[in-house]
Design brief:
Elements: H1 11-25, H2 30-37, H3 43-48, H4 56-66, H5 70-73
């Protein structure tokens, strides 16, 4: 039996998934994370839904607010 090919996620999709996982693991709502990182409350949702590209600077701000390295949000390290 053949298995379906595994979908390769884009970089944006990987960051979105890792951001959501890190935020949820930290017990923060999107609004709470936005406030900690200095973003508008809707920004986190647009990133998590892959509706916007995220800059490296904003990725670092989110990682700092989560107490993680930016590398974690890129999938390069464990949470």
């Amino acid at each position: 039996m053949k298995t379906a090919p595994r979908k390769v996620l884009s970089a944006r999709e990987r960051v979105a998934a890792h951001l959501r996982r890190a935020r949820e693991t930290s017990g923060l709502s999107q609004d709470e994370l936005a406030a900690k990182a200095g973003f508008h409350r809707t920004y986190i949702g647009t990133v998590e839904r892959c509706e916007t590209n995220i800059t490296i600077d904003n990725l670092q701000r989110l990682a700092d607010a989560l107490g993680k390295g930016a590398r974690v949000l890129c999938g390069g390290a464990r949470h």
